[in-house]
Amino acid sequence: MPYKILKKNQLGDSGTLFEMDLHTPLIAKKAYAGNFIIIRINEEGERIPLTIADYDRENGVITIVFQVVGKSTLLLSHQNIGDELLDIAGPLGNRIHIEKFEDPIVIIGGGVGIAPCYPQAKELKQAGNRIISILGARTKNLIFWRDKMASVSEELIICTNDGSEGIEGFVTKPLRELISKQKISLVIAIGPMIMMKNVAELTSGNEGLPRVKTFVSLNTIMIDGTGMCGGCRFPSKDGEIHFACVEGPDIDGHIVDFNILLNREKRFAEFEKQSYDLYKKKCKKFDTQ
Q1: Domain architecture of the chain: domains with CATH
Q2: Which residue of 47, 146, 149, 155 is most buried, as measured by CB atoms within 10 A?
């Protein structure tokens, strides 16, 4: 069955970030923080995993946020309200573990990773937790959902690499200060691989700070999203093989060998660029006809 786009918003003024509401009654009924979906836009399209950024069970709607980084996300950004996506599989992955902690939880979102932080912060706050949220991006134009994150946080900290908003520097800067001044029960980091690596290293107990349990979200290459294809497998530091789609996507950040995953991210970069450039060239050709 096709899935209709009910709402589409551009986030910020970067021109690359988009928010969409999709009519998916069965998925919305079962969705929780931590779950993801796999979208196929049309018959020729690839399967792309996107985290569920919000859900509305009553109206049968889920929200996704995505950034244009390649052909498929560019094609998705060209879809409009009323258009239908060919298929959506989900909810996939595991719901985050919800419990009441005595000390605050720090939730860190980097770039488009801010979106999946919202349902996690919301569900953990509903369980009675105190939430400190840190949002980071290269520049203020890539920070979004400030009000939504503030509504589920006792404290909201914003960082930008260029200092255009909030603290100048990386998200590890305020995180280091928080951990050094008070006891933190849990850290959740969702965003670029290098950001999650740096957060996990900071909370590992090896940098003169207390060790803090840390979860990261491994939105690696996925094809079927059910553990059958092995596309999302990743090695832990002790050499064991894990599967992000069925064991996560939230994974203990202290077991992940990020160096291998960072190298893996580059493996298909040239092919992705070629596909993206060819699609843009095709679009330009149609625009001039």
Answers
A1: 3-92 (2.40.30.10), 105-265 (3.40.50.80)
A2: 149
